[in-house]
Protein: DNA-binding response regulator
Organism: Actinoplanes nipponensis
Amino acid sequence: MRVLVVEDERNLCDAIARGLRRKGMAVDVAYDGLTGHEMAYVTRYDVVVLDRDLPGMHGDEICAALVASGALTRVLMLTASVTVADRVEGLQLGADDYLPKPFAFEELVARVQALGRRATPAAPPVLTVGDLILDQARRVVTRGGVPIDLTNKEFGVLEELLKARGGVVSSEELLERVWDANTDPFTTTVRVTVMTLRKKVGDPPLIETVVGAGYRVPEPVVVLPAGGAV
């Protein structure tokens, strides 16, 4: 999941980012409204955690611009404005959720995760192909009933490949969905991560390389009985 945190209190912004990264999310940060608006326009984020009272460009303007663009990005307003009128106003602007400060970090994580599930085409909470099972909520992967210990990036790559349901996912798409803005776009990190992921997933191999296009996990072919009856 790719998240942007736009918050002018730098210590709070960095703390939120660190916490979300520990939960396996790819997180970028912006400390003012103009930068946040530009980043949200250039990159497709699943969720934007957005303060309202921002320097440069107000959070309300950023929220309205995201809604008007038709982006699938979900907006969680995180702000010290705590009256009912403030919350109603934020939601009417198009925010998907509203969390007042101070807040419990675990609640923030739960809300971001819930919004992230709504930011992309619906996928089942548990993804399977053959004997491989990936539980998105529990962040657990097993094959043949045996747990597989994956890093956050390996888990993210496998998750994106399974969500594609047999489709090809390019290295650029994986880099955008799993890594943050600090990653060198010319790096070999995707290739290296896929290589180690293949080893951990084991045999028979599941991840295919499509030359010049990217990677995929083919869906198993279902053989129907004669006559087409199931």
Observations:
- The mean pLDDT is 85.
